[in-house]
């Protein structure tokens, strides 16, 4: 059976909100991934003993402190999980299969993340650490051949795995 690590981190909203009260902070910013990619990335770095690759890395986000051949790419789990590099997503950009394959070659893992419960005091991040061979298999089975898999399909694949859950309360 396939095995996936799942880190669930609970953080204080005040931390994310920079000390602003809930009334002073725009709720939309709690769900805006552009502002939050760094939270899951830093928690994975701490859990797996990885470090940042660089500010503008094109095909990977982090690498092992002990052996820089072990790299991982982080992607948010929204309606579509974009597995291709960020240089190929967004307005005015298009899918490039060579770049996706380069991501699959360079990285040993992907870490896929989504938000869990958001309440008056805390926000949860749910982060899956998935070996690249699973990602490639799932993409072959369920991907759209343009660099993505729907969130529901990838979650179904994850749910078929044995999940090793780790809980960190950092609130």
Description:
- The protein is an alpha+beta fold and 171 residues long.
- The chain has one domain.
- It is built from 5 helices and 9 strands.
- The protein has helices spanning 13-16, 38-48, 97-106, 132-142, 151-159; strands at 3-12, 50-52, 62-64, 71-76, 80-82, 109-118, 122-131, 148-150, 162-170.
- It has a 7-stranded mixed beta sheet.
- A hairpin with a 3-residue loop joins strand 6 and strand 7 (122-131).
- The longest helix has 11 residues, at 38-48.
- The protein is globular and about 45 Å long.
- The termini are far apart.
- The mean pLDDT is 92.
- Strand line-up across the major sheet: 2-3-4-6-7-1-9
* Fraction in beta strands: 25-35%
Beta strand count: 9
CA-atom Rg in angstroms? 16 Å
Give start-end ranges of low-pLDDT stretches: none
- What is the CA–CA distance across the termini? 34 Å
**What is the count of helical runs?**
5
| Apparent shape | globular
Structural class: alpha+beta
Give the overall pLDDT as a whole number. Answer: 92
SSE pattern: EHHEEEEHEEHEHE
Largest sheet: 7 strands, mixed
Q: Give the total of domains.
A: 1
Q: How helix-rich are the residues, as a percent range?
A: 25-40%
């Amino acid at each position: 059976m396939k095995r996936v690590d799942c880190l669930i981190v609970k953080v204080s909203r005040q931390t994310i909100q920079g000390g602003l009260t809930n009334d002073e902070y725009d709720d939309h910013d709690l769900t805006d991934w552009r502002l939050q990619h760094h939270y899951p990335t830093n928690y994975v770095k701490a859990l797996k003993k990885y470090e940042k690759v660089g500010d503008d890395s094109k095909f990977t986000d982090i690498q092992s402190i002990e052996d820089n051949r072990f790299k991982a790419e982080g992607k948010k789990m929204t309606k579509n999980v974009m597995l291709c590099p960020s240089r190929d997503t967004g307005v005015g950009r298009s899918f490039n299969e060579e770049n996706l394959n380069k991501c699959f070659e360079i990285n040993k893992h992907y870490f896929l993340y989504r938000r869990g419960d958001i309440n008056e005091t805390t926000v949860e991040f749910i982060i899956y650490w998935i070996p690249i061979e699973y990602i490639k298999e799932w993409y072959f089975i369920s991907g759209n051949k343009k660099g993505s898999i729907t969130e529901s399909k990838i979650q179904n694949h994850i749910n078929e795995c044995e999940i090793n859950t780790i809980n960190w309360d950092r609130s």
